[in-house]
Amino acid sequence: MSLKFAMAAGLAALFAFSSADAHPQLKAAGPAPGSVVNASPKALRIQFNEGIEAGFSGVEITNEKGEKQPVGTATSAPNDKAQMIVPINGELKPGKYTVAWHAVGDDTHHVEGKYNFEVKP
Questions:
Q1: Assuming Cys at both sites, which of 9, 28, 55, 62 could form a disulfide with 47, CB separation 3.0 to 4.6 Å?
Q2: What letter does residue 10 receive in the DSSP assignment?
Q3: Residue 12 has pLDDT above 70, yes or no
Q4: Phi, psi of 6 (to 5 degrees)
Q5: How big is the chain by its Cα radius of gyration, in Å?
Q6: Whole-prediction pTM value?
Q7: What b/e string do you get for 29-51 counting C-beta neighbours within 10 Å, with b at 16 or more?
Q8: How far from chain centre, in Å, is Cα 52?
Q9: Is residue 10 part of a domain?
Q10: How far apart are CA 46 and CA 101, in angstroms?
């Protein structure tokens, strides 16, 4: 094996590893995962580690019965493309909720996840 071939293979492997690790990841959210809030939030704010494409991203909120709760269109924060803001249309009644989120990063990678929070006045 020639030295040039070995170096090219090593660089290709390094590039593949670093690009595979570059997907958007949830850093924080409001309401926070596992939290108990004393009032229905007006919006969800989800912070990622990198910018996202809000037009291809969003959330679905369901209550304990699996009923979808009405939400608005996802947007990015005005000064932070890594923060997704989704308005909640109406009031969330006391109870436990699941947030199923999906996001497309600036790098076009699609990621998704879930977390729970509770409204308990």
A1: 28
A2: H
A3: no
A4: -65, -40
A5: 19
A6: 0.80
A7: bebeeeeebeebbeebbbebebb
A8: 9
A9: no
A10: 9
DSSP H or E stretch at residue 60? strand 58-63
Side chain identity, residue 47: Q
Which domain CATH number covers 89? 2.60.40.1220
> What is the rounded CA–CA span in Å between residue 54 and residue 20?
21
Greatest extent of the chain over all pairs of C-alpha atoms, in Å = 69
Q: Residue 50 and residue 114: Cα distance in Å, rounded?
A: 18
Measured distance CA(88)–CA(73) in Å, rounded: 9
In which domain, by residue range, is 72 found? 24-119
Q: Could you tell me if residue 19 is inside a domain?
A: no
Domain count across the chain: 1
Comparing CA positions, the residue from 52, 53, 33, 55 lying closest to residue 44 is 33
Is 91 part of any domain? Answer: yes
